[in-house]
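Dear U.,

For the methods section draft, I wanted the exact inputs and outputs in one place so we can describe them consistently. I've listed the two proteins in the order they'll appear in the manuscript figures. Please don't edit the token lines directly; just add comments below if something needs changing.

First protein:
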Amino acid sequence: MELLTDVPLVGRVLRASTTGFECGTRSSDLDEPRFGAFVQARRRSDSTVIIGLIYAIRVDDDPLVRQLIMANNINTATIRDQRENRMVPVEISVITVGCMEDGVPIYALPPRPPLSLDPVYLCDDAMLYTFTQHFDFFRLVLQAANVPSEELLAAALRLAAAVRPRGEQTAYLIRAGQRLAQLLSADLPRLNHVLRLIRPA
């Protein structure tokens, strides 16, 4: 499988299950991925594209960082060297929200997770637009354990709205809110919280 060249590489898979995966990268490569971003993991052995949402980004420390924190004064050059030249590990956690088969979205868990060292990319605008045409991935996010599901879903919807023409963005968020009202009708505090987060400006 060849690396994609037209979308940013987020990192490579460290560990995975059918419900999600973690990928690793370096702190110097941490410009593109953000909380709520849609990512794609591609298995080497088949054509399934696994779609997920970034729900956590953790920057690990190392012995040098611990020593620098104890110093009275840290100059700018030292901080820049630590961030840009040293390979500080970053771990990105992703919840799986579906997959794509031959360009067709499937809003269910994939039959197999990605494998260790499989590349993880950001979804480009076209893939993001296609995958978020329907809201069937909401259930996987809202039912996920140990995930800030309301904030995650709101961040994802704001990104999904942003790839649409300006005249469609508010209507898209309204439709999303209507679907959320159906799913969370028995949990009004939770529903109101999500609706506040996605309310158009």
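Second protein (the one for the lower panel):
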Amino acid sequence: MRAPASDLPILLEQVSLRAGDATLLENISLTIAPGAPTLIVGPNGAGKSSLLRLCMGLIAPSDGRISWGGHTNPLPIRRSIVFQRPVMLRRTAAGNVAYALAQAGFARKSRSRRARELLERVGLEGLAERPARRLSGGEQQRLALARAMARDPEILLLDEPTANLDPAATRSVEDIVLSAAQSGIKIVMASHDLGQVRRVAGDVIFLARGALCERAAASDFLDKPSTPEAISFLRGELVI
């Protein structure tokens, strides 16, 4: 199948997702367009990870329709996703990136050079020959970002990539994410950290109980939330 010229915008039209008797997302309609990072926030169980997987095309909606750049079933040629706990291959850091380049169809003779460039981009050039599974949690997350960028993505989906990291590692990951956004990559990231929303987000998608409660510019969401659920969430109250 021929890939479309662009996977953007991602358009969800009345999308619902069920697993058995449980409704994970219900009647979601939204557009994800080029621009500043979009952060998906909400309480645990709100459906943030499920929404990312739908946007990646890893799962199909139970109801509704998703399209990427006007196409309903394109190959994910220029979409990448990084999970909260990425799996490291039993290879060096450079070997992990080289594998991702091979999977993306990158020419063998150029993989070593491109792997070095990507490791430098995430600040791991000095650890290229270290076994990936011996890297720290923050270093593994940066390596996962390098692997994701091996696909030269137009859209980079991130599922709480800093959830288990200390402040220094969090800042390193955020710097990489912001650099990627400035290079033109559309970032869509789930986060539970309101400070991170203020530092990174251009706009916010707020989910609660599997429903889209609010979509707003980050500053408006943080300073002038418009729904009771968002107000409670920002106050640190339980949203059940």
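Candidate sentences for the figure legend, describing the second protein: The longest strand covers residues 22-32. The beta strands are 10-19, 22-32, 38-41, 63-68, 79-82, 155-159, 186-190, 203-208, 211-217.

Thanks,
Y.
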